[in-house]
Amino acid sequence: MLPVAPEVKAATQLLGLGRQRLALVVGLSKVGDVDLPAVRRDAAAVAESLRRNGYLVMARPDLSADDLRRSLAEFRQRLDPAGAGLIYIAGAGARLDGRSWLVTRSLPAGDAAPDAAALKAASLPLDELVLALQITPASLRLLVVDAATPLPRLPADWQGLATPTLPDGVMALLSAQPGQTLPRWQPPALPSPPPQDPRETTGSPFGTAFVHALLSAGRTGPQVLLETRRLTLDATGQAVNPWLGGRTDERDELGAPTIPIAQWPESVARRAMAVVGGQALEALRRSARPAQAPAPEVATPAPGTAPVAAGPAVAAGTALATAAVGAAQAGAAAVAQAEAAKVAAAQTVATQAAGAAVSAVVAAARALDSADSTGQAAPPAAGRKTPTLGDQREAVEGPASPAGSRPAQATAPAAPAGQTAPPTPPAPPAQPAPPPAAATPAPPSTPAPGPRTPAAPAAPVLNPYGYAAGDSFTYRRIDEWKGESVGLVMQVIETLQTAGDLAAREGDDAQTLDPQGRVRSRSGPAGSATFTPVEEFWWAKPKAGESRDVAFNEVFENRDGRGERRWEGEVEVGKPTRLTTSAGTFDVLPMEGSGWVREWRTPQRTRRDIKWWRTVWYSPELGHPVAIDILERDAGSRMLRKERLELVHMNTSRSVPR
């Protein structure tokens, strides 16, 4: 069976055969009379990076509050329940009435501070972006907000964003911690012509980190956000500390660029067709009776060829249907000349190619319909060129970013041998040539200059046990009693405190850890708990055969009331072994413990005894547990809890597993 090439995967994503990937990219670089060039640059670079990852990008720069609300409604209407959705928005934000507001160009100009009503009228609540993503928790839903730029006109207690409330299935990354602001970045001017690599056109450290993470192959959505946070911390010497929260589907690969410049469906389809033809020929060459038929050739327009004046759906249909016929002919040749196994593979390739062509025509029609519905593309008038598929794509996605070039027209390829070329519609009346200074420069014939060598990141500051700000550990929580996964738990170390403790966050909970990484306290929407001196189920740098007593107090408060627990028992370190999780294979030491916990609750004044067991699978190489088995029963041996936490991903400053 033939493998599916990366180019074909990218084609199926862009042409609608695979899982839908839709992104809304908003750069609010005009806020009243304030200009934010870094926002404009970051939004363009992010849009281009997402296109290279197979996303259909709705690029919407400098919107008013009403336009932004309409774009969100369009995004939600387009996004399939099973599709992958991402919203990126950059600009300036504000806190008001406990909510986050994204300020648009509708803010009245001037130096006077707006009142609350004026600010709200010119802004959009961050909650509405979350609502646009909240369709089903089973699909990838990511929200990236870079809106910590301060507005001097606003009062100090309005600056920054509030902590967002995220439903299951949505994961969010803010460029700064809630309530904090960042400098107003002033990026240097781009050379002319601008670089083709979007990593060279960003405007801020956070935007640069996000684009680098997007263009790193093989990362899932949560991994991209985690990597963005780590790169931002490294690039700013821990000065900028992005906020990360929520959870979403960890299986969908987001950062997997497959084509250097995959900017419009025709080019992707042609590249995929060429790869498909090459695969079919390779299968024939390996067969006992080699094929004599040549590979189908997909004509590429020669430089300077005049564009064909055809509607977008016609242009797409002609170009891709022609290519599909060539691929189907190669499949037919394979059927006639190859062995049975190779024949089946060639048939599959030809069928996929034809299906891609059909989907491209449908996608072009949808793009035309969408552009008409948004009022961004007017029907052709007398004396004006009929828009091509490239023009319609620009109407749907917005103008091309400086990070990449896109031809203004799509030229239909020549028909293969034996086929009759479709009639060419009459050309529109000639237009006066624009003055030379206004002409669009042709794409450079020489390769774009190589990327600049980035400055070496600052060495992370490690505590005595190897932890650094930005380290993160993501675990899958498994209910072994029910035999099902109940979600992901992500712990991120935010800062190293002066006293040696670690400030961390686990989902919506703020945590304080001791220098070894064990929990001292946690608090969040579901309740709080304090451990004195610390949760002692494990310790750093254990030795095989070592044992320690467990003795600590827990004071807790949750929706069921308040109470206190007294934990006692013993933990013993077992022999070294190996353990494989989704994060890798680790050499581990099992730390097995058991004992009793006595619980008192107030105001019910109830007491109960619980028997507990823990097995902590500690990795000396990682300096942290990679799995924890939890078992608890009441005094009558009735099961209360049986869970497993298993590491699925980590970002640390230490070495990673083999």
UniProtKB/TrEMBL annotation:
Residues 21-244 form the Peptidase C14 caspase domain. Gene3D superfamilies: 3.40.50.1460. It comes from Rubrivivax albus. Residues 181-205, 287-310, 371-461, 507-528 are annotated as: Disordered. Residues 289-310, 403-421 have a biased composition (Low complexity). This is Peptidase C14 caspase domain-containing protein. InterPro entries: Caspase-like_dom_sf, Caspase-related_regulators, Pept_C14_caspase. Residues 185-196, 422-454 have a biased composition (Pro residues). SUPFAM superfamilies: Caspase-like. It comes from the Bacteria. It holds the Pfam family Peptidase_C14. GO terms for biological process: proteolysis. One of its GO terms (molecular function) is cysteine-type endopeptidase activity.
